[in-house]
Amino acid sequence: MPLATFELALALLTAAPDSAAAPQAGTDRVVRRFEEIVVRASPLHDLLSSQSVHLVTRTSLRELPVDRFAEALALKAGVVARGEDLHVRGGRSGDLQLLLRGITLNEPLRGRPMDLPLLAVESAELLSGGLDAEYGGALAGVAQVRTVDPGERPEIELRWEGDGGWRTDFTRRTGYNRFSGRVGLPVLAGWGAVGSADVFTDDTHLPALRSRRAWNSWRADNRLQGFLKLAPVRGSRPLALEILAGRRVRRPYNPMFSLDGYTTLCTGFMCTGGPAYSDTSEPGYERYRAPDHSAMTDEHHLGAVLSASSPLGPGRLRGAAGAVAVRRLTSVGGRDDESYLDPSRAPFFGLPESPTSDPLFVYRGDEPFFQKSSGETFTLRADFDAALPSGNRYGFGAGLLHDRVRMRELDLTTKGLNLDSLRAYRASAPGGFAYAQGRWMHEGLVLNGGVRLEAFTAGSDAARQSFGAPARTHWTLSPRLGVAYPVSTRDVLSLSYVRIQQSPARDFLYENRRVISQRQPLGNPGLEPPTVISFQAAIKHLFDQGRGFQAAFFYRDLFGQIGAREFRPAFLQMPRYENADKGHAEGFELSLILPGSRLQLEAQYTFLHAVGTQSLEEGIPYGARLTPRTESLGDYPLDWDRRHSVAVSGVWRHPAVAPSRSPRGPIELALRGLRGRWSASWVTRVGSGLPWTASPRQVAIDDLSIVNQQRFKWDENTSLSLRWSPLLLSGWLELGLDVRNLFDYRSERAATLYGYPHPTINTYYDDYGAFRGETGLPGGAYWEDNGWVRVHDPRLLNPPRMLRFSLGTRW
């Protein structure tokens, strides 16, 4: 392609739909070739970039039947969702970074991203491959968020969703309610404010056994989220302040803590019969509601970002300062008081082979766990980028970070074993980065290149940790290289190579214990940033009428990941976090985007092969408390190794039509009112089975070749949303009906779950996994001398069909 033709193509590719200039006589032919393809808003990201980017539009967030921002990301190619965890291109759940104005919204303890109210998000971009040097510190990719802007006129949007107190089969109340709202209005002198709130309460599909003292008491899952933004109402938004706040209270269901009645710890002669349970009061029995004695989690998070931008010479200078804080409390009753951790109140389980008790259930006592943690990250960054008349671009930037973390954790199950039961630390550490990147074009070939320098250290507190040493600063250099070539006026081929290092989460670094069990490794202040080397080949294609298609082939090699390995100080032997795990993932992604005003569709397909030494940083959780676990030496399928994933989403709208004449009679008036404005949206997700382990019965796992060698069946989940706005109230009132899991497909989400605080079931042995392996049946069981005892644990299955009703208004 001649250089002049290529530059004209570039100008049209990046032009806004209403800014195309009239073509000159000598270039009429070229303009006609590109106008139909690009001047209509392109559904694809910058075509001359080497990055693989998936756009999350406003329509996806407002109209599709999704409840959380993470669910909208899970519809994109390359993403595997397991519960609330997202795994992008085979990465671990903490390897995805959430950004707002370049500020990280991940908390520093474990790298969990902040939850966002849906009405506060205008759009987002998921960058999963070929990242520019501007983005760093994320082994699996980056999700970049843009929030809503205040308008020139007041705007209000309110919405309620609920299940009416009933499940689909009308047999059990679930208590699902969600209130969402957004208010925007001009404030003063060209400035405006927009605020959003989201209040969500739900008892979920699991048994709701905990007591509720009032109608407004906490349910099983509760989320409160808020957002506030101050910014100019027009122009390029030179200055903006964005504040995000939230709270989540989780009261999980645990079958071990499910008895609700009267219990005794002594039956039979000399109490040889063990504990017993009764529905009614009997002599020697005490009232015991076990669900209220199981731990719950109360988490608060806060984020604030102040950003500014200004033209400077040929480019634009941008700056941002941000702070992210999280506070998490896990305790019985949500109390900030660890006094219940008394040996006399330790959980008392039933006895095996007992006629009066069941070894799975707790008959008296509290869950022996307390954890209180907090973390803050402060970030300051500045960036400059410019585009030259030749089409070349360049940019550079730098930033400083500072983390502060605190932890206090008590585990009473270690009492009497001469092991440390208290884990506590307080630490802070700085960090920083600098980068430079550019785009150069020559005779139709586009070179995207850059380099990123990052500094990471455990800080001055490293020497005060158990088995610590003076910290050193780890400097990492990450080259980014990509080539893009427009092979035709509709197709762009790109190749990329990137190397990324991600700083380890702070909770893996610090430690005060010295003698521990095998169930939670020691923190290690000597950890270094893990590394990924990624290769990608991608093609982007534009059809007529603004439709788009993109495909990407990727290979990712990870090494130096955090894993547990045996540590041998003096005469001791115990696990500690080390840079010992590795893995690799390869596959390809296909995305088809068909935008439209009446009907829009999007289809995503992913083939993924993800293997590694371990799925969890802690390794396999099952085994003896004091016996070293078998170390992983080979590559095994990771827990999220879903080979085939398909996601199809769509929105259909039927706009209201104004009547041409007056109605004749009340019947015609009623029929005309029903016409109104209709819309339907749906999401269908289909995936091949996830891996699981058929563990040996009553034997510790010492042969890791069996790990994740089995597969569940394919699973499917379809959600449907119907909306209707009456003609007479069009734009003011909207009624809706949502159905989750439309076809009520009860697929398995897991074969086993960790059984803390039980001393043996699903801790010493993997009973659930062994039962699934021997019988092929879901639901879990534990072994007694007479055979398997079924548990029917509903946590192992995905939720059934759910109906929700909605009422909304907007003006």
Structure description:
- The protein contains 6 helices and 39 strands.
- Strand 9 and strand 10 form a beta hairpin.
- The N terminus is likely disordered.
Features:
single chain; 811 residues; 5-stranded mixed β-sheet; 45% strand
Q: Name the helicity range.
A: under 10%
pLDDT < 50 stretches: 1-40, 168-172
Percent range for β-strand residues: over 45%
Determine the oligomeric state from the structure.
Answer: single chain
| Structural class computed from helices and strand pairing | mainly beta
Overall geometric form: globular
| Total helical segments | 6
Q: How is the main sheet built?
A: 22 strands, antiparallel, barrel
The gyration radius over C-alpha positions equals 29 Å
Mean pLDDT: 89
The first-to-last residue Cα distance is 50 Å
User: How many strand units?
Assistant: 39
Topology (SSEs and partners):
Layout: H1 3-14, H2 28-39, E1 52-56, H3 58-62, H4 69-73, E2 79-82, E3 85-88, E4 96-100, E5 103-104, E6 121-129, E7 141-147, E8 155-162, E9 177-188, E10 191-202, E11 221-232, E12 239-250, E13 260-264, E14 276-278, E15 286-289, E16 295-312, E17 315-332, E18 348-349, E19 362-364, E20 369-387, E21 393-411, E22 422-442, E23 445-456, E24 474-485, E25 491-501, E26 531-542, E27 548-567, E28 574-594, E29 599-612, E30 636-637, E31 644-654, H5 665-675, E32 677-687, E33 691-692, E34 710-711, E35 715-725, E36 734-740, H6 767-775, E37 781-784, E38 787-790, E39 802-810
Parallel strand pairs: 4-7
Antiparallel strand pairs: 1-6, 2-3, 4-5, 6-7, 8-9, 8-39, 9-10, 10-11, 11-12, 12-16, 13-14, 13-15, 16-17, 17-20, 18-19, 20-21, 21-22, 22-23, 23-24, 24-25, 25-26, 26-27, 27-28, 28-29, 29-30, 29-31, 31-32, 32-35, 33-34, 35-36, 36-39, 37-38
